[in-house]
Specification:
alpha/beta; TIM Barrel; Lyase, Ornithine Decarboxylase, Chain A, domain 1; seven-stranded parallel β-sheet; 12 helices
Length: about 400
């Protein structure tokens, strides 16, 4: 695991001379968010964690250990390779593979203690063939589609699986995925809940998992036995409900390269999309779309873009985001506050990640998982734990 700096060192370090930016990941906030979600669940429900895509871009090694320290024991990843890496870090965890069973990979799954979430009749048939004759067949989950129409067996296909008790396969978990849980009043939520109950009745001995991040903030009817929150763990919102945003986990900052004057009527950036309405002071910041700061975050004369932040001041973006840099208005900031070499926050505690994502026409998931590798990463350690019993 990464050697963590102290919180003070991580917050105040001048960084290396070559660092154009820094990504600070608050592992204590990640652990606290998991505990907060766990506390929202019904008393008999377990809180797992979706840790796919390198813990949503945070860094899987550190994120996994923080979640385990908080008390999480069941983890969901997308691919068998992610599962293998998770097993190497957490030898005692329960690990499900959400993408299901890859062709010819049953031995790999079983050898690493990975549980495929079978999502098609073909996957069920291949797994049945693999476990045939085994006295202690390895466990696997079953994915039933209730309306999102991505992966999963139809209800009729699930009935066919359930009606063949001689097959030797009985899922240890039945899951489905919500399509509109981020919109609490959407009628599809209730429809999916009803279909999921019907699917679960076919496999009464299996654990039931329906709740993603947003579903945890719906009625407790959606919690069932095992929740699998993702994006809310990492500090972004998964729901329109205001209480669905927990502690920010990731802060993205970048260094000011230069401060210069922009005269009234002058344009800035590719395409000359922004024209200065008055004399302005501009800070050129070393963050661009190569770093995961999306091009669509920029502004035009007709459209306001994203903001940055420094020392209590919001900084509107000016013009297009380039590959390696972006321009921000520092006209209202004292000259001794925004100087060459200083850092501005692009999102974090002062600029919510969901706000920055909305300005780019996207969601926090894309920002987190798309952060580039040119910026240094620093991890603030977990300072409290629920215990590991």
């Amino acid at each position: 695991m990464t050697d963590h700096p102290s919180p003070e060192d991580a917050a105040n370090s001048a960084d290396l001379p070559g660092d154009g930016g820094r990504i600070t990941i608050d592992l204590d906030a990640l652990a606290a968010n998991w505990r907060a979600l766990d506390a929202r669940l019904s008393d008999d429900a377990e809180c797992g964690a979706a840790v796919k895509a390198d813990c949503y871009g945070l860094g899987s090694d550190d994120g996994l250990v923080a979640l385990w320290t908080a008390g999480c024991r069941t983890f969901f990843v997308a691919t068998p390779q992610e599962g293998q890496a998770t097993r190497a870090r957490l030898p005692d965890a329960t690990i499900y593979i959400l993408n299901g069973l890859y062709p010819g990979a049953s031995e790999f799954y079983a050898g690493h203690g990975l549980r495929p979430v079978l999502g098609s009749p073909e996957e069920v048939a291949e797994w049945r063939g693999f476990i045939a004759g085994q006295s202690a067949p390895p466990p696997a989950g079953l994915h039933v589609d209730t309306g999102i129409s991505r992966l999963g067996l139809s209800l009729d296909e699930a009935r066919t699986v359930a009606s063949d008790p001689a097959s030797g396969f009985s899922p240890d978990m039945v899951m489905s995925h919500m399509a509109c849980a981020d919109m609490p009043d959407h009628p599809m939520n209730g429809q999916q809940l009803g279909r999921f109950r019907e699917a679960c009745a076919l496999f009464p001995d299996a654990r039931r998992s329906l709740a993603n991040s947003a579903s945890i903030f719906l009625d407790r009817d959606y919690h069932f036995d095992l929740a699998r929150p993702g994006i809310t763990l990492y500090g972004a919102s998964a729901s329109q409900l205001p209480q669905a945003r927990l502690r920010p986990v990731v802060t993205l900052e970048s260094r000011i390269l230069q401060v210069h004057e922009l005269k009234r009527g002058e344009t800035i950036g590719y395409g000359a999309t922004f024209t200065a309405p008055a004399d302005m002071r501009v800070a050129m910041v070393a963050a661009g779309y190569a770093d995961g700061y999306l091009r669509a975050s920029g502004s035009t004369d007709e459209k306001r873009g994203a903001d940055a932040w420094i020392a209590g001041y919001r900084l509107p973006i000016l013009g297009r985001v380039s590959m390696d840099m972006s321009a921000f208005d520092v006209s209202a900031v004292p000259p001794d506050v925004a100087r060459r070499g200083d850092f501005v926050e692009l999102f974090g505690a002062n600029i919510p990640i969901d706000e920055t994502a909305a300005c780019a026409g996207t969601i926090g998931y894309e920002l987190l998982t798309g952060l580039g590798r040119r910026f240094s990463r620093r991890y603030l350690p977990v300072r409290s734990a629920r215990g590991t019993g």
